[in-house]
Backbone:
């Protein structure tokens, strides 16, 4: 029996070798999803890929699905999903759990070596690499008006509020948004983790969490505090707003408005029951994944790797000002000279991965932020945080 | 007499104040939209209401810079879908209503009740199922699929038209039958010419649907950018990355949608008012 098996295996191997020798170029059809703004840039990258890979006849089409929508669109109908798609790193756990991503098996060591540790961590689930990091810019930091604040002022939130108030201006932060409000809790040492039963574990209601809550309360109650969304920030910066927390997607708009006074830095320190604590943040990455349903996994992986290699990460930076996750690209002079990306890199040293944040976190956190913005003090901070944590863990 | 007039004018004054306040509340958002569509400064929000700079560039750019957002293409897609949906669903609605109003057959009441109850569920409840059915038929990501989706359940909206048909005296049908007409002739030759208001109402309702629907297009079209309709396409302009640069163009695009609908509405307006009330008053 074993003999027969051995013969069959040998034959199969021989056949495989023969098949490998065939020089006839086969046609490989692949589909790539990226956001609308990336289409032209992706097309250029794909054209370069085709020029560099003449071994097969590649037919690569592009579809419009933004990084934010990727999970929804892939899970709606995995069979119709693109072979290679861009997505935001907070979707990775759900995508892996749904079996939608192909594990990265080719050149794994090179990819891990070339990209930042945080981005690899964000692409890894259960010790397996599932995606290729493409950018490291999906986080937030602080923009400020140099004519109002000195470089010393922006180190402390309290100083900033005092200075802004004296100048009759506002400090902007979207507190009623779980993504931003977490910066206080995480800065106070709070943890969001996934328990063994797969449920969210959150300790934002412990003693340090309450101190962070009190800091949020003091911040939102201050005369110089202003809440709102991105539109408020880009509309008011330079006139009514002197500083605001946001991300790189607003860099162009804000630098246009502030002109010479345009500056950005890491988030300030806040007063945590008498001691100063550095505000933390969520570090976000954009990743490129390969669909588990692809017909040509090898070619799809090659393409995904191509789209995220050093050269193309630099291209992403040059055309769309996206911060590279590739270590060499991120260390280039051009990237370091970019005000917003430099501030983000500085903030990223205090940032926390968003991977273990499950869907149930956002709404209760938003509710707490909304109550703070509305100055609703009918309950104590401890009570409100207990309620919030109970909902998050529920 | 004098006191009476004063009293009258006082209550009138109060009414006028309330009415003016309400009209401001209603008209303000529309005025704001139109003003924003002519605003020269970018961004979604400004600390002032009246723009500092006026421009028509937001409108011209919609049609000239089509590399990123192909507005003209979306507009034509939507127009095509709207026209076909309008024709198919108008015919379906009117035929269903006629059948339920004029013909007597077993289970008529039952069908009417089931139709009414089914009509109460929002169509997008079954969108994923519909998507897979369309995919199995090889129709996903096409405009044909959209036309089918928008006009498919039209028959369930029979209620208003049926109410209208019920008010047309049955003696007319009987007279026609005596003269040798069959149901087909009665529907096209007798009932329809008498039902212009409700026809117009049905036409308008089914024409508007494709312009305002977002959910079905986003599920059916997925990544097929060239087949997007207006609603889905415009939404791409206000994502986090684009909103600052494209918000004023988005407003211009939204204003332009009003044009075909308004033209159709003005043209058919005189029938429209009659159409909505006709069925109710006489029934």
Residues:
């Amino acid at each position: 029996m074993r003999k027969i098996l051995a013969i069959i295996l040998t034959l199969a191997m021989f056949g495989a070798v023969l098949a490998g020798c065939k020089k006839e170029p086969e046609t490989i059809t692949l589909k790539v999803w990226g956001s609308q703004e990336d289409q032209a840039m992706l097309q250029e990258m794909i054209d370069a890929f085709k020029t560099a890979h003449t071994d097969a006849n590649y037919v690569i089409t592009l579809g419009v699905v933004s990084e934010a929508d990727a999970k929804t669109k892939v899970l709606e109908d995995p069979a119709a999903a693109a072979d290679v798609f861009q997505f935001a790193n907070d979707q990775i756990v759900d995508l892996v759990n749904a079996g939608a991503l192909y594990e990265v098996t080719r050149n794994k060591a090179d990819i891990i070596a070339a990209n930042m540790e945080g981005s690899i961590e964000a692409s890894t689930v259960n010790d397996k690499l599932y995606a290729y990091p493409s950018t490291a810019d999906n986080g937030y930091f602080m923009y400020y008006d140099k004519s109002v604040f000195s470089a010393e002022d922006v180190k402390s939130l309290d100083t900033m509020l005092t200075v802004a108030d004296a100048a009759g201006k506002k400090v902007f932060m979207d507190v009623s948004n779980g993504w931003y409000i977490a910066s206080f809790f995480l800065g106070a040492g709070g943890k969001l983790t996934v328990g063994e039963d797969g449920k969210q574990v959150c300790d934002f209601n412990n003693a340090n969490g309450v101190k962070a809550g009190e800091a949020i309360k003091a911040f939102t109650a201050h005369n110089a505090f202003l809440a709102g969304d991105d539109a408020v920030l880009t509309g008011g910066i330079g006139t009514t707003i002197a500083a605001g927390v946001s991300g790189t997607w607003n860099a162009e708009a804000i630098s246009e408005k502030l002109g010479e006074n345009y500056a950005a830095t890491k988030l300030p320190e806040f007063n945590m029951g008498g001691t100063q604590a550095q505000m933390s943040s969520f570090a976000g990455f954009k990743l490129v994944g390969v669909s588990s349903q692809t017909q040509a996994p090898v070619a799809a992986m090659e393409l995904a790797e191509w789209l995220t290699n050093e050269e193309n990460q630099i291209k992403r930076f040059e055309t769309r000002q996206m911060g590279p996750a590739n270590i060499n690209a991120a260390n280039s002079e051009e990237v370091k000279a970019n005000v917003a990306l430099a501030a983000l890199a500085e903030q990223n040293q205090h940032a926390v991965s968003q991977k273990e944040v499950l869907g149930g976190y956002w709404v209760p956190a938003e509710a707490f932020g909304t109550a703070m913005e509305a100055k609703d003090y009918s309950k104590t901070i401890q009570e409100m945080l207990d309620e919030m944590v109970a909902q998050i863990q529920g | 007499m004098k006191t009476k007039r004063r009293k009258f004018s006082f209550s009138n004054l109060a009414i006028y104040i309330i009415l003016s306040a309400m009209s401001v509340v209603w008209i303000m958002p529309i005025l704001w939209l139109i003003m924003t569509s002519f605003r020269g400064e970018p961004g979604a929000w400004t600390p002032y209401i009246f723009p500092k700079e006026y421009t028509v560039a937001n409108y011209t750019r919609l049609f000239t810079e089509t590399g990123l957002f192909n507005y003209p293409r979306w507009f034509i897609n939507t127009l095509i879908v709207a026209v076909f949906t309008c024709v198919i669903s108008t015919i379906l609605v009117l035929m269903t209503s006629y059948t339920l109003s004029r013909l007597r057959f077993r289970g008529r009441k039952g069908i009417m009740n089931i139709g009414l109850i089914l009509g109460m569920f929002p169509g997008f409840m079954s969108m994923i199922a519909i998507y897979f059915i369309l995919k199995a038929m090889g129709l996903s990501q096409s405009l044909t699929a959209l036309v089918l989706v928008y006009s498919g359940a039209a028959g369930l909206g029979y209620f208003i038209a049926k109410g209208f048909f019920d008010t047309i005296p049955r003696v007319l049908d009987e007279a026609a039958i005596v003269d040798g007409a069959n149901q087909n002739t009665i529907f096209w030759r007798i009932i329809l010419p008498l039902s212009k208001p409700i026809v117009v109402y049905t036409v308008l309702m089914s024409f508007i649907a494709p312009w305002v629907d977002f959910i079905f297009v986003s599920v059916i079209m997925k990544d097929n950018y060239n087949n997007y309709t207006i609603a889905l396409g415009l939404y791409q302009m206000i994502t986090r990355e684009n909103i600052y640069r494209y918000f004023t163009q988005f407003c211009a695009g939204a204003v332009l949608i009003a044009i075909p609908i308004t033209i159709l509405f003005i043209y058919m307006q005189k029938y429209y008012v009659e159409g909505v009330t006709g069925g109710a008053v006489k029934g």
In short: The two ends of chain B are 43 Å apart (CA to CA). Residues 243-282 of chain B form the longest helix (40 residues).
